[in-house]
User: Fold these one by one.
Assistant:
Number 1:
Amino acid sequence: MTITSNEETRTDRLVKWAAELKYSDIPDDVIQRTKDFFLDTLGCAIAGRSHPAVSAMVRFAAQMGPSDGKSELIDGSQNVRTSPAFASLINAAASHVVEQDDLHMRSIMHPATVIFPAALAVSQDIGATGEEFLTACVVGYEVGCRVGEYLGKSHYEKFHTTATGGVIGVAAAVAHLLKLDAIQTSSAVGTAGTQAAGLWQFLMDATHSKQVHTAKACFDGIFAAYSARDGLLGPRDILEGPRAMGAALVPGELHPEAIDQNLGKDFAVINSSFKWHASCRHTHPSVDALLNLMSKNQVTFDDIDSILVPTYQAAINVLSLSGNGDTVHQSKFSMGFVLAIAAKKGHAMITDFTEADLTDASLRDFQSRVTMEYNAEIDSKFPEEWQGTVIVTCKSGKVFKESTRFAKGDPELPLTRSEIEAKTHALAKYGGITDTAKVDSIIKRAWNLENEVDLRGFVF
Amino acid sequence: MTITSNEETRTDRLVKWAAELKYSDIPDDVIQRTKDFFLDTLGCAIAGRSHPAVSAMVRFAAQMGPSDGKSELIDGSQNVRTSPAFASLINAAASHVVEQDDLHMRSIMHPATVIFPAALAVSQDIGATGEEFLTACVVGYEVGCRVGEYLGKSHYEKFHTTATGGVIGVAAAVAHLLKLDAIQTSSAVGTAGTQAAGLWQFLMDATHSKQVHTAKACFDGIFAAYSARDGLLGPRDILEGPRAMGAALVPGELHPEAIDQNLGKDFAVINSSFKWHASCRHTHPSVDALLNLMSKNQVTFDDIDSILVPTYQAAINVLSLSGNGDTVHQSKFSMGFVLAIAAKKGHAMITDFTEADLTDASLRDFQSRVTMEYNAEIDSKFPEEWQGTVIVTCKSGKVFKESTRFAKGDPELPLTRSEIEAKTHALAKYGGITDTAKVDSIIKRAWNLENEVDLRGFVF
């Protein structure tokens, strides 16, 4: 007899649901939104393909992986096919570079950048269909985001939940593709959980761990699921057990109900947001509020004397780690710099953050006049709501205030298909893709994904 | 400007020492002991080669890795050569199955099972010499164990320090083999640290994470070092930074002085213990005390009515997780069962734990009469000393008490070379190796390791 009881745990229920979900169980709006996020992720991957972290992983795959395989890199210029573990490692790193991938708010994680690269690479490896791929992605979103929500915001203070919830979501998605039963899926999830890692320390010196986290969530989750199929046993109660993730990785409040409530009714895909701006997601509500305020009140960049941004604690924590933003990537984590870009350019798209801007005195001066301030009321609603408020004092002495409950791209204000297509073209252009017909053909395939029988060729 | 200061941190000093260590800097007793532990690890790997976790990883490597490579599996029956990441994955899993690998007490970790597989596989990949291999292993032991000691015993309550300290040690050892400079080594160590994971939850249901932890410490540490060479930047202050390992993974007391005090003077290799008994290391001091007591007082298995074992908290924590011990592996984590085996058979060697013993009524009855009890004085000395005390009440009514400060195999009582050779032969025999001349030839090579110019062929 082991100490683990035979009573069904919340994790058991989540795992069973994940193993048994069928395509026909999934509402059509969930399928449609999953396709939206899939296309969005392909664009992100191609935009991020030249980052040094991605190059290092391409080299790692060449040294440690096979010289051929069935899984493709979204960056076709590499002309590489490899095993799914390495293909997803690289694609996941690439898709998390430009800070344009999605967000599931309640869990504070970015599911797309881990779930799609893993599910795509494995689908190519085993010859899964579009329906099988989409079902696995819905499973991956659901399991990953529920784990992230269970771990909560005290976990997020030190840990990159996209990695720690993500690896579990990947394991569940891949287990579904491999047609593992509930017992095997439980092992996959357990083995994923005991590998869960990913610290925010890299924000302090602008190093490359953010891409390591998404890359390794894919690799490690694939390891967990393939190994579970081949007999490796993982701990069953990896979320709520006495030496499990909740106990070890969460100093504050846990949310156990998130693990299994409303399974099959409330879908993480539907609760995820698109990122419209190219900056850290914690800046988006404030950018929207500022742009609304400037438009409503005909305030210009030069009119603004200072901005006070009352916000929630997690935003202050994350946005305080990158200093003034010495690099383009870091600059997207500075509230002041992002608001400066938005105020000056009228948007904060991927092409709006440049090396030249880093030394633009007017932007740096504006940045120095932006202050974040903890607001208890806004914080009490986080992460269910990511509210944005800006209080703008003009050089004229006038003061304006504007708040947003939802950001553009949120579930309440999702991007339209034509906006997603425009964003994909912009990301591809940023990534150096000049063949727009190729981009159009990939867009067309994505919209028809449930009817695809071969998922190869999503390569720019 | 980033927020990270330019002042040298403790981690900087450790990394610099690691990057710059030369073979000629290492005292001869450290070299000799490193060779002892290397041979010991080879024996452990061959003894553990048939475990299902190892088989699953062999299969994973076949599916995800290359079909050839320069790095070997210690288990020659697999007839596999692969890339160093996969070879070390498998060898590290195999060497941590039979609970006979070494222990560094102050850090509560098993350095050999992660450092040697990684350093061996990489040495084979790059053609390193015996001297280069030994130097890298000394670096790996030192860095890994210092990190484990820094994290301390509150970390160990939830985390398997062999994994979390281990991945850093592996990164440092491999960085040394790859001749990375201090800056690159800092990146390797940082990327390793943001992957640090490994939870004790698996003890609850006897699943396979213990092998996952050592295997992945190797894979992830190799990833960190090779990627650092290829331009991937890792966070610099991964131990003491505000979002780093200490802050995120340690609820209690940290030991920052362990990171950099007495570098080059106090060697982790010399402070490591051999395991003589085949059970969890937390049972060893009590086994020694019991065997001494029985021998001194001519007490037999049948004479004993009950045993009280005053001990430190970490022993109670770990040994309380496996229930009565339903499997051979779990049975090595039951204080009562291990003492029963030792009392009945006079030793607790690898061949003393069998399937048949699990249903032996006399052992199970004896087991039920053993009780652990928290002892504040013993606990206050842990983990600097792992004391063992047993209070035996005989059926005659006589009561005996015996304590040990050091276990057989401890730095104060190390195994002799002939004992290590005997242990290696026993492990090989347990692993099904019948060619004892082959074992002798490997022993001979190990004792001459510093003069080897090609580290291939350590294959049973």
Number 2:
Amino acid sequence: MMNNSGASNGDSNVYEKQVEGHDHCENGDGSDNGVTLGIDGGTTSTVCVCIPFFPSSKTLPNPLPILGRAVSGCSNHNSVGETAARDTLEEVMAEALSKSGSDWSAVRAVCLGVSGVNHPTDQERILNWLREIFPGHVKLYVQNDAVAALSSGTMGKLHGCVLIAGTGCISYGFAEDGREARASGAGPVLGDWGSGYGIAAKALTAVIRAHDGRGPRTMLTNKILKALGLSSPDELIGWTYADPSWARIAALVPEVVSCAEACDQVATKILVDAVQDLALSVKAVVQRLGLCGEDGNGSFPVVMVGGVLEANRSWDIGKEVMKYVQDLFPGARPIRPQVEPAVGAALLAWNFLVKESTEKCHS
Amino acid sequence: MMNNSGASNGDSNVYEKQVEGHDHCENGDGSDNGVTLGIDGGTTSTVCVCIPFFPSSKTLPNPLPILGRAVSGCSNHNSVGETAARDTLEEVMAEALSKSGSDWSAVRAVCLGVSGVNHPTDQERILNWLREIFPGHVKLYVQNDAVAALSSGTMGKLHGCVLIAGTGCISYGFAEDGREARASGAGPVLGDWGSGYGIAAKALTAVIRAHDGRGPRTMLTNKILKALGLSSPDELIGWTYADPSWARIAALVPEVVSCAEACDQVATKILVDAVQDLALSVKAVVQRLGLCGEDGNGSFPVVMVGGVLEANRSWDIGKEVMKYVQDLFPGARPIRPQVEPAVGAALLAWNFLVKESTEKCHS
């Protein structure tokens, strides 16, 4: 729902390099005490990282050592069904452990940030899968993948708002007192118009409307037909039916951005509307949680994640969203995470452990 | 794509009664010369009727005798795949023939109006399926199902514009000189917002937006949750993922109409926008074909088909669309077909045969 493959900017390579920098010989800093698995389960792919288990009393080393990293397919049970989602998760964890030179018995904590967790029953179901795999002493946490993405920007702290816009989009936030809120992230049927899928679907619609006489002519027609190797807008109908995958549609976002950069009015309007939709999602979360304080000027982080926000083009969707948000909330501090969401998930596990041990001390 | 199950008004019962009125003992008026099959293949169901074969020289009897009628599932190859679509067609034809007390050898002409025919290659593929079933002398015609729907309003004559709004929507038209044009009918990804699916998807989106703080409160929330037996808008996400069928979404149109009738502003705006979208589809076709003549006042039929247009409620979408169209084109004459689209398809076969024999006479 919220993976960042919509308009990929090659992030996975960046993260691969982070792994290479910390290979097995550097494991002395904690892996003897076992490992923590952090998983980012999106609609397009699932990433698992293995980091050393840090006792809750310890501060985190910087940079964080990544012992192993594995990538697999979709683990959103809404998209691929329960059995396939579960198999994907087990597979990707096994591979990350194997790459770390570790095994299941070393695992002390697991945190899964997975798309499709919209309700406590979703959480409970996935916890049950994990409980069948791991013995009772292993700490298990399941969160919406947006929570792991937030944590990737705040290095484990659950405070502020994250905005993800990749194939899907969602805004998710936490107040200091633990209250949480979300907006969007409901999928294409339920109108996630700021997502990569939403932007590209509107562009395809504009091509059809120009073709059948309902809408103005637009550069999007030639640009998109060329990108897809089609000769007429009529063929778009068969093309969309042939494969209903959202990522395939969302992959057209760069074409829309190119047309907007060339001042095509239809493409520009699509992007401006997407910016407003994304900013509105952040606004809804910030207001419900009161993140901006009573005077509206309070400081809070806004973590920006996903290909749509990271495109780094001259028409920069992420920058425009942040401008809009800071107009509303001057204290909003944009954060571009330096680690990937799977590492955010692993940091989340550490954060939860710290919290639990603090609560134990006070009880 | 354009079946009329969106907001069903029990039409199938009406058509069943027409069949009952013409049972086997009345077949004297032409079935000795063989039969014609007319098929309406929509996204939700496929209907086949068997009528007597009328030589092209004869005028049609009124009312038209229906010898047999059969209903089956979806035959849109885009939705269910080629094999299933083909099997459905063969099955529904066999059943209609059997109910007529007839068999394959009696078939003289077949006309298939099927959704998903958007390109000559689609037409050719389906013609190939039919050619494998029928011997060479049988006349075979394949059209977009909108063409059969138009014919159901004009009793076989290909002139004017048809607007279908059921689960999907499309506008399709023919000029007297045979030129044709269409608008919409591209499916949900490509923005058929006037369709039953489009209306209901916007209503579901409005419920999510109200829930997460991005949109105004609306009566749609309670109305739709009650209709679906859900307790919170959060559960809508799982509900939409659980079954991606468009008809299931489109079935919520009556709830939207009820809320608009109770003056809910959000529901009213959704319906007003749908009316504009549908009218714009008609406008695009009329203008491209010049159906309204040079002065814009020329007379032409507008055939209105599908549950969204036939709902017959105090908030009447079909009536509003026609008002809008007649404001633009005073000569637009609304027609509510008295026969179903499958009969329209059968009449189309007759019309094509008349044309071919006329052309033969002149050549």
Number 3:
Amino acid sequence: MGLDLVLEESPETAVHPLRKDDLHPSLSDPVLDTMTFLNEVTHRFPDAISFAPGRPYDGFFDTEQIFTYLRRYLDHLAAQGATEQDVRTAMYQYGPTAGQIREIVADSLRKDEDIDVPAESIVITVGAQEAMLLVVRALTAGPEDTLLVASPCYVGITGVARLLGVPVTAVEEREDGFSRADLEAAILRERARGRRPRALYVIPDHSNPSGTTMDLPTRHALLEVAERHGILLIEDSPYRRVSPGTPLPTLKSLDRSRRVVHLGSFAKTVFPGARVGFAVADQQVVDDEGRTGLLAVELAKIKSMVTVNTSSLSQAAVAGALLAGDGRLSVLNAEPAAYYGDAMRTTLRALDARLPEARRTALGVRWNEPTGGFFLTVHVPFRADNAALTRSAQEFGVIWTPMTYFYPQGGGHQALRLSTSYLTTADIEEGTERLARFIEAQASAS
Amino acid sequence: MGLDLVLEESPETAVHPLRKDDLHPSLSDPVLDTMTFLNEVTHRFPDAISFAPGRPYDGFFDTEQIFTYLRRYLDHLAAQGATEQDVRTAMYQYGPTAGQIREIVADSLRKDEDIDVPAESIVITVGAQEAMLLVVRALTAGPEDTLLVASPCYVGITGVARLLGVPVTAVEEREDGFSRADLEAAILRERARGRRPRALYVIPDHSNPSGTTMDLPTRHALLEVAERHGILLIEDSPYRRVSPGTPLPTLKSLDRSRRVVHLGSFAKTVFPGARVGFAVADQQVVDDEGRTGLLAVELAKIKSMVTVNTSSLSQAAVAGALLAGDGRLSVLNAEPAAYYGDAMRTTLRALDARLPEARRTALGVRWNEPTGGFFLTVHVPFRADNAALTRSAQEFGVIWTPMTYFYPQGGGHQALRLSTSYLTTADIEEGTERLARFIEAQASAS
């Protein structure tokens, strides 16, 4: 086959620009467009009060903290007998792929969460987002392997699945909670279709987006279903230590048969810019020749092809913060947790004041009442879509997130997510006032 | 379909542990095992001199530099009029997915590399490794889309392709360099098989692993082939600014038709632990409705599903270093570049002293003579495999990397890679002495 032939065949391929259709299909995922839309609305209406961003409140940050955290970690290395050369290597060189602060994180998990695992079963990641990528990639070997997600669910997990071409099956979280029966039915349906569900992704505590928390019987039921059907549970935990009160036990601390891969994030408990999270993967993996190793080792292999290792500077800052709190995120976050609890209570009280029981029943409006976390769900008697959001921002000066964004297989058309973490009390009061007016107007218009 | 039925069907699925065969096939890539093997050899023979690690020499690092760099960036923000609140947001909050130091990197590219692109066409990544993942993912839409790589090639790019299930086709780099004819032939073969090669990955300057540098006519030829056949060139550039002398122009600076995605890394020029790299992707992307945007925007969308954003702390440290050098990596790295140049020359001179021309010709040994970078290739008259490596480490106290590791489709059986970047002069002298003795012994044994 000669050159001439090909030149005739493909002159048009030399034409610029690139066609979007020629790029990976995950880039045409409507979720990406909706996020862009939300950003545009926020940009177009800068005076609107936004209940959209799931960011930590930054009033607790102080620029000098960075330096304090780093010094604290350097002191720790010195106290452990590190030489100048060791310290330079730790701070500047390529580091171990699985992370250099695993002992410190393992210690924190023991103290805070009653999760007692060896450091070797932990992989430090670039935020929990990278941990999701590693786990989903490791667990899916072929086209029949699928991921189950509690739905509505965090867009990061469905994004990872799309990026990797892994089919996602939604298991709906009902208003009265996640149900064991729904999960088992989903597993059976998947298998009947010749597919192999590998894991279920859940946020048991103060879930993003719904704000719901799984009760203890549900946690035990999930573990039992996972054990019975041979799937893993991917437990994400970003809001546990920034919520008031004592949380229920994690799935991982209840896990007696290594069915749970636990994901953690320091984005809310230390700071988001560090981009440090982790996976606890103490599952045994056995190969054809009977050699065994930890799933964490496999995750680290994948990580070596994604980010090589997590920023040593970021790891040092997070370790410094943990060491400053004697490993207890619960202690380190006592003040923020109280703050977020107040913000949530203020929001719920303000909603109740503006849309009292009788009024909201008449309208067909209701909301859940999380005791912590960053989010709550408001059900409304109209389609909470992009058009409604634009009207809300433009005419009423209040922004929220359409719940539909979080349903990978459709749903949530009449619900919206409010985030309470980033606003001041004054903005919450004014924002709920505006929201109530919008809901009244929109309900009577539809 | 009832529960009972399924319980009968799948009791064995509940059995632990996980089977390796049930994990993603990239985890069974032999390259991962060879890397493990290399690490084990290094661990088993701690007194061996190792020419294996491609790490920067860390004699130039100083712990206090971190603090100086961070302060320098904070001063820069203040000088630009940032308020205390702006600084806290920049350092602690979630940042822009595409990065917060793009202007500073764009400035550096203009000054050092004559690459003049708007900051919007840059995406700051967690090392060049993440940039490879984003680019390969973006460019591959379906199973027919393939990646071409100059072979031997960096394992990070083939790792990314395996992780994403993208077929890789090797285009062999011959001893006299990379050839336009080989590239065109590979493109034609791919198309004849119904596949669509999307891009070619190359390291034009002091390549890892071979150490070769493309001459200027080859650079122009690659651009012409890319233009003619409608593929992109992914240009990686980690060693340009840590090599002595003035490098040849980058492909990107010669690119008149936006055929080049340029990747950069600050691992060698600032420090590896920061994990900061970038992609320059100024290609236009057009969708079905005729809307256009930059490829960089699409890469950032993918990044939002991989790491959300690059550590703000790491970005601040790198920006501080760049600002301290007035944006010129060439100036900032004058001393390291001279050091690495010396190390390479010392290695070549020492090899020549131990295996002079006549002797190496008789043995069938030869090597290339890079003028910079971290690596060179030694061709030997025996199989440079794991068994040979073990003998070399055990009996001669010297470690190197088998070149076969870097051939995605086989090859390089009688070649080894030496890295000269991490060793002291004394170790280079002693190490080459040991290596010469090993080569003599192995050559006479085979």
Number 4:
Amino acid sequence: MSGGPRPAPGARTPDPDWNPTPVVPSGAPDDVPEAWFNLVPNLPVPLPPARDGDDGQPSRLALQRRIRLAAVQEQDASTESFLPIPQRVREELAAIGRPTPLLRARALEAHLRTPARIYLKREDVLPTGSFKLNSAIAQAYFAAQQGVRTLVTETGAGQWGHAVAWAARLFGLHAVIFWAGVSARQKLGRHTVIKLLGGEVYPSPSERTQVGKALLRDGRHLLGSLGTAIGEAISYAQDHPETRYISGSNLPHVLAHQSVIGQEVKAQLAALGETPDTLIACVGGGSNLGGLMGPYLADKAERGDGLTLIGAESASAPRLTRGEWRYDHADPEGITPLTKSYTLGRDYELPETHVGGLRQHSGSAVVGVLRSQGLIDAVAYDEAEAFETGSLMLRHEGVLIAPESCHAVRAAVDRAIEARRTGRAETIVACVSGNGALDLEGYTAHLGDGA
Amino acid sequence: MSGGPRPAPGARTPDPDWNPTPVVPSGAPDDVPEAWFNLVPNLPVPLPPARDGDDGQPSRLALQRRIRLAAVQEQDASTESFLPIPQRVREELAAIGRPTPLLRARALEAHLRTPARIYLKREDVLPTGSFKLNSAIAQAYFAAQQGVRTLVTETGAGQWGHAVAWAARLFGLHAVIFWAGVSARQKLGRHTVIKLLGGEVYPSPSERTQVGKALLRDGRHLLGSLGTAIGEAISYAQDHPETRYISGSNLPHVLAHQSVIGQEVKAQLAALGETPDTLIACVGGGSNLGGLMGPYLADKAERGDGLTLIGAESASAPRLTRGEWRYDHADPEGITPLTKSYTLGRDYELPETHVGGLRQHSGSAVVGVLRSQGLIDAVAYDEAEAFETGSLMLRHEGVLIAPESCHAVRAAVDRAIEARRTGRAETIVACVSGNGALDLEGYTAHLGDGA
């Protein structure tokens, strides 16, 4: 040992008063809402009920009643505006990091030279990388309460399947997941994560179910879609009476479970002294849209054109912008009941895209009511526009967002550019429904196109 | 419109007092430490200085002085225990989400049936998915202050390159990144993200530099490693006088920049009334280890065997467990100065692994002093052990962690199992240095092996 005296190993600190807020997930549910907001009794017209067809087939409604969880059927039938969130669910929602941050996208605003203020609701920071966990936790809880051991479901981009595998693990359940084949084959990393979580995954259409076999035999919808996966999940549940079938979008209870998003946004904006002028969500089955906008339905009724609600969809599945508002099955084979929604028709073969979460031929009846009543506007973007927006977000905000979420942010960017023209200091809130780290194949393909 | 009276669109809330904490990244730096902790003056013996060889080659130390940022050279020479963090850097560290959470891994503890309490410091939640951002932001800031426009660096797994590309974007700089070829070819998704961020990437060894050409010509180190990438980055900086070369590990200033980790852990544990018995970090260039353990050096001096410090390394690059404590070059071609560290020798050809962040033949002099003085223990794990641990973390804590971080958690798991035998309610803290979402190729390969 050489040299002069060494300072004692340092216990000094330059500021003895530096005492940062400990950031320890507490599991304390106080910051999570006490109830879900139920959109259905708050719609301006009654929700068109699901119904059976006149084709002499066995009742699809009866099948749904048998294979679905009791609790969510009660929620869908409820006329209450608020559905209590079980304490255990509140605890788990706190544990995954709710409330999620509301980010002011200042760098994006500066780049756009807009007077608008853009707020991004960051559902992408949740453990599975998307908002889907909010409902997956609730439904896995209800399943465990009911004594169910195996859940069957479908997934499009894989966000819902990933969330169900995660939530199933949390409650000691097994998850069987039918995954739109085109997305399952793109997303090898997400496939690995779902399998590591213990999920049993089948790219759809598959040989695993009667519905899948029929599609393969007839050479229909071979790329797969959310619709083919819905059909197969129901078919599987039909053949496995011990299982229960759950959904991650479209239905009232799923939209209600997602209302934690909008309730948090309301509280967060109030704390900032802000009132939103525009709320934006991407729209596939409508659950992040319903979750963000449901708690604002009263404001919309009061403010009319003073509050703009926008659903951003994929131009490859343009239901709200080009579909018809009519009864249709949610799956190509017609194993689902007839539901009224904006639809492209169940024979519509969806093209291959990297936007699996928005890739279905029909959608949510609740969203359909909002659209048909003129409460929400709709815009459609193609894949190149979406990934351009994702690149913009990454470069300016440093955040890598899911391809689906790119549609919502694109709509926010368009509004912000319009605000530059009009000079209006508009307050825009867009929901970032998911993270893009497990969807990089789409970005890579986009980059290959010279982006 | 049919039916009876509809409830008015609901402005009701079940609990008018529900008033959640708004979670809005504030940019306010009050929760970020005011100073970095400098390990060097707090080592029990002086740090062995870097030196030139006796081979008649031009001075490598002179080259380092020319190509490195002035501020970090001042930091490396400082005898102060605390180096002030510039206010702008504190603001950016707050904006990326510091302090990061400290997670009690209760599910993992239950699975292990251990009396130990396992705390995980969650650096994986930062925007680029790893702790590397802490130093990248600091160095990009110093570069911008110095008027530098282009930064050149190396990266192993890609975490540092990703962080530098992100931080460079933040300060309007250009980043040139030499990336250990074996990792660059594995990680297509991370490659895409770095390119979208504007980073200029070269898998190493490359034809882009004199050092890379020499390796390719001689057929040495063709897989690439952190060492080949270091050599090429320095070679590039030598040939481009307008650029500056930065490092993401090994050197005292990098370890200091990472000391926000340990300072936060101290405050977070104090708030919980906890005193750590064991601190664990994975160790490649030693910066997450130094960052976690530096602020605990005084405690270690005081408590001796009462506080255990463990470095977890890769069995494919077993420097601390099987290397020699001697002077060596950090790159195979010898363009770096001679530094004293635990080394396998610069001719050691590292095998192909999915643990790129721990894959170098030598390491940090500071870590070497800690090891040679008996202050840190070392353990080595092979790739299968690491990915097994990653799968365990995902199944029990729902968190997908980087392959490097798996080594630290594995050591924590081993301690917790030992605690089960002894019955000791040990308090263990392990640093989760990174997220695994951009490293799924390794998990996929592991899954293919029947995991």
